């Protein structure tokens, strides 16, 4: 779309490519999200040092960036003030991507308004279609629960319900191909979430449906033909059939856990393990509510409270609740840090000027936060490289979206290519003149 050479043209093109590739990764190669984000962060620092673009952040951008940075500072503090600080070094290294917003967001701002979102939404849809193919192969030959490229069924369930929902934001596109990808990506995301067997991801669906309805009802949707009605009916029936199969399977698993909990209270199954972890985490927090124990001592303290025999000690890396996890790690400060993280995308969206971009930003922020909060109440929220990277990048994208920027499809972007090239070339000329001066 921008075939000629130029300084800002190159930055804009790379931003588009980066956004598209990042949106593909969550279901297909989850660790690729963290690697991509860290590489973008390092290159953005180099570019800033070389003055390839200006450091520009609005007041809202800085508020959001400090929300993320506060989480980093609290984590470092909780590691430093508790015993075995050397064991907490890996947790500090995990904080590096949260600082990416200070360099990557100014780089995104070197792109023209509205030019990145179509690649995010379309990439999400294509990624979900690929994830379904991956999941079917896994279910057929490898595992009873789909994990996609996440390596973890719970993380995969989170990503598929989130990016499947983001895909449907293109349902009002003027491009027939984009509308197909939007609907197919949404359907594939739902199917993948069911195939993952992640019950917490299923709880996200009604909330995300409400967000999508709020956003799409204000858009001009294409006329639904008879063919589309038939195809839609087939898709709905297929989703219901797969959902019924997996819901029944997971319901019986939960029922079995409840019966076992009643008859054999000392046995440890999925349900009992969670109840024990939550109880121990609560007791740990109440014993040290101000500063917690540090992430490096999290599970040792939980196991100490549980006082289980050596052969029954919990081998989990977290307590399967994002807020309790933060409470054990950093006490009240840890909980405030997580609440600040979750508030960041909402703040970024709501502070924008009214317009189509603001509505889109609010929709993405609500999809993001609801997905993380609901799944995080029963599993992992932050602390996993992929979940951290996805949250950080989507938050940056929400910051980047202009409130008054109109929605553009990829064909519309192609139509603007010559004008975009001219505008970016003018930026190049101004940068060259500034260097001469």
User: What global shape is seen?
Assistant: globular
Instruction: Give the rounded overall mean pLDDT.
Output: 87
Which bin fits the share of residues in helices? Answer: over 70%
Which sequence of SSEs, written as H and E, runs from N to C? Answer: HHHHHHHHHHHHHHHHH
Low-confidence stretches: none
Largest sheet: none
- Percent in strands: under 5%
Secondary-structure content class: mainly alpha
Report, as a whole number of angstroms, the end-to-end distance: 32 Å
Q: Over all CA atoms, what is the radius of gyration?
A: 23 Å
Number of helices: 17
Number of strands: 0
Key features of this structure:
single chain, 437 residues, mainly alpha, 17 helices, O-antigen ligase family protein, ligase
Textual characterization of the structure:
- By secondary structure, this protein is mainly α.
- 71% of the residues lie in helices and 0% in strands.
- It has 17 helices and no strands.
- The longest helix is centred in the middle third of the chain and has 38 residues, at 226-263.
- The mean pLDDT is 87.
- Keywords: Ligase.
- This is O-antigen ligase family protein.
- It comes from Phyllobacterium zundukense.
């Amino acid at each position: 779309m921008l075939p000629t050479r130029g300084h800002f043209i190159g930055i804009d093109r790379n931003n588009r490519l980066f956004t598209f590739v990042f949106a593909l990764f969550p279901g297909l190669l989850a660790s690729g999200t963290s690697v991509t984000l860290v590489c973008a962060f390092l290159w953005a620092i180099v570019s800033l040092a070389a003055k390839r673009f200006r450091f520009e952040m609005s007041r809202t951008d800085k508020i959001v960036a400090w929300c993320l940075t506060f989480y980093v500072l609290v984590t470092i503090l909780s590691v430093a003030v508790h015993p075995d600080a050397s064991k907490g070094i890996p947790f500090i290294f995990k904080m590096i991507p949260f600082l990416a917003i200070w360099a990557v967001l100014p780089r995104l701002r070197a792109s023209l308004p509205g030019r990145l979102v179509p690649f995010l939404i379309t990439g999400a849809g294509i990624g979900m279609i690929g994830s379904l193919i991956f999941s079917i192969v896994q279910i057929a030959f490898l595992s009873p629960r789909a994990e996609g490229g996440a390596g973890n069924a719970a993380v995969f369930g989170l990503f598929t319900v989130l990016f499947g929902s983001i895909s449907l934001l293109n349902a009002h596109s003027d491009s027939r191909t984009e509308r197909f990808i939007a609907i197919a990506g949404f359907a594939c995301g739902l199917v993948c979430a069911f195939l993952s067997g992640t019950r917490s991801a299923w709880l996200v669906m009604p909330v995300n449906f409400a967000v999508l309805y709020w956003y799409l009802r204000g858009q001009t949707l294409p006329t639904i033909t008879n063919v589309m009605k038939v195809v839609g009916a087939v898709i709905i029936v297929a989703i219901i059939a797969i959902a019924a199969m997996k819901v029944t399977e997971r319901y019986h698993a939960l029922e079995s856990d409840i019966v076992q909990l009643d008859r054999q209270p000392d046995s440890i199954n999925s349900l009992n393990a969670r109840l024990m972890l939550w109880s121990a985490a609560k007791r740990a927090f109440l014993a040290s509510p101000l500063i917690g124990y540090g992430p490096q001592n999290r599970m040792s303290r939980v196991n100490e409270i549980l006082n289980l025999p050596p052969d029954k000690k919990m081998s989990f890396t977290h307590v399967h609740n994002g807020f309790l996890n933060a409470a054990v790690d950093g006490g009240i400060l840890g909980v405030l840090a997580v609440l600040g993280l979750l508030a960041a995308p909402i703040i970024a969206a709501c502070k924008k000027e009214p317009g189509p971009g603001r509505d889109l930003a609010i929709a993405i922020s609500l999809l993001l936060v609801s997905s993380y909060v609901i799944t995080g109440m029963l599993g992992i929220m932050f602390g996993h490289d992929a979940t951290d990277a996805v949250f950080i990048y989507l938050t940056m994208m929400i910051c980047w979206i202009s409130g008054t920027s109109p929605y553009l499809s990829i064909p519309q972007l192609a139509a603007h290519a010559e004008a975009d090239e001219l505008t970016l070339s003018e930026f190049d000329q101004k940068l060259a003149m500034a260097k001469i001066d």
